[in-house]
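Quick one - first record:
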Amino acid sequence: MSLESSRYFIEHINLDVDKEYITLHLPIDEYQIDEEKIFTYFKESKGSRYWFKSKDNTYNVIGINYIDSIWRDRFVPKAVEDSKAALFNKIQQEALSKNLKSKLSLFGGTLFDDKSSTDEWNDFKMVEFHLPEWQFDLKNQELFLTRPIKGLVLEELIEEISGVLAEIETEELYERDKPVVKSKRDIFPNEWKKLVQEAVENLDQDFKKVVLARQKLILFESRAKRLYLIRRLKDEMDTYTIYYEKGNSTFVSKTPEKLFSIKDSELTTNAIAGSIQRLDDQVQNEAHKDFLLNDDKNLFEHKVVRDSIISDIAPFSQGLNYKKIPQLLENRYIYHLYTPIQAMLKEDADEFSILKQIHPTPAVGGLPKEKASEYIKEREYGTRGLYAAPLGIIHEDIECEFAVGLRSMLIAAKSATLFAGCGIVKGSDPEEEFMETEVKFTPMLNVLEATTNELYKSSDSSDI
């Protein structure tokens, strides 16, 4: 950021007293800053920070200090849209440079469903999106600073911004202590297997699939250091990175799955369903890939997910494009069947109505969607909260990107609860599905450096 050029722009700004906030938008490409330095500098803001990075790096956004938020106890698209419009209408937006690329955004999403929340999810609302005081766009090397207009002296902000950026740049990074694992245990493992068997017996022509999730509880000797997690998340590639602090809770996800994005009136989404483990042995991996591409169970599971997504977005679309034969999506630990889908949206389409319609996809809920959702709500152990829920970035216009909060965990105090699920169809075997979910715990175990053969204890309900 050029201090003199920013002063020039500041001098020509007239504060709008009818607005509540002013947002200054400026380049920060002269500073060498990254995610870990930002979180280190703003360590006192714990509980009011997020990091959202899309797997194709369309977004790499960090927000610090939630200065305002919109939230609802029920997800009514029109009400959320009105709240978003009202919040943006309170902001006077000013660019301090020409040719800036990014746009002011809010971060947030919804819980998986409206099931009465258990205590561990009390920090999160059913629907909420946050406007941060400091918003760093690391892809475009730009900054948004939002402050209340009342009592503001604009000229002082330039020196403050320059000082903060200089201090972030010179933050010393040192080795972080990894959390010491006290114990690991599966929550209700035997009961979960019985639930899978019951679901298989209940499936028929009118109830084709249900996704059942389970949890793994990890206890630490002391509180997990958030800066350690940030460093570990930086090392993970080819997935979304979602790091979301709210109050005393932190939700972390390394999901491979985009729910949808909208840009220039084009909606992009994908069907991801059907999976198999990726190993270190290349010969075995080739066999796994060949099996996945030809296995009837996985192909059926993928087809019902793809067809459901297409059906959900069709009312908002005036043209669809997708391939009927799935391809492979290769992640660090898992291979997935994958079909990209594009749709040109109608003029009256809005992101929240689409979100309400498309979530949950059969990849995380089941089919039919309503029946599967009720089955999950009534029978599944615990509350999903943000697991498998939509989280992402929204703008003042319709442009947005949402991911699905898979490969995730909730951290609070000295514990981490890991979540994983799998699609149950006719022919599913409880033991095989249990092992599939075990593989899906791997990304979060890797973030914690808590391997599955370390201090592992499987327990039934009496041990929890």
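second record:
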Amino acid sequence: DLKDPETGAPLTVHHIYDARITPLDDGLFVVTAVDTDQGCRLAVWRANGKSQAGFAGLNQLELVSINLNRDTRNGVLFPEKIGGRYLMLDRPNDRRSGGGPMTGRGIVLSASDDLVDWEDLGPVMAGRTHFWDELIGSGPPPVKTREGWLHIYHGVATHFLGANIYQAGAVLLDLEDPGQVLGRTVNNILEPREMWEMTGQVPNVVFPGGLTVAATDDEGFAKTTSELKLYYGAADTAVGLAVSTVAEVIAACEKGE
């Protein structure tokens, strides 16, 4: 049973969504948003089963922890410990967009020894006013490259006569200190253009949620020549697939394109 940490009152869960899947510790972990009466919280789940290649044979998720101390969303785990600790990116909800749900414009970094208790390590990056990424949030788990952690995030332009437009960009984070940004795309790398991205339950949305690379080297770094596949939600109605290479997206971060 979930209870409010301040009042002790039971928490009612309304929705569980925005799952981000991370291979970690020889298993699969999932971070989800959880809507409660007290706001949105992040939960960490462990997938029961032996398969790391996919969900074949995985029949349930076991709750590891839920952060009840702040309203936040867009949580994603790094695929390995850094400095001996688990790390997570998330986006605190500190403002409301129009009449919609709470949202935010900054991604922060947290650390944990056990995936249960989390320590705030500070801000990583913020949205850019009057640009394509005024509001931001983390997308799929970061990918380890020789140049840094490659991370895809979503950005929201809110200044088009009240119509929010969800897009995607990329950022390169330091391998040993992911709180440090090494490079960031100036322009988006993906935007709604197709009819099925512009019309649907929530129009004008591309929302990155999954990322795979075709090849890694012997030390687990993504090869720059590797194909990169980005899976994204389109208008909250369909699922899209965008294809690039690791080298191309890294170059866009480093050059600020």
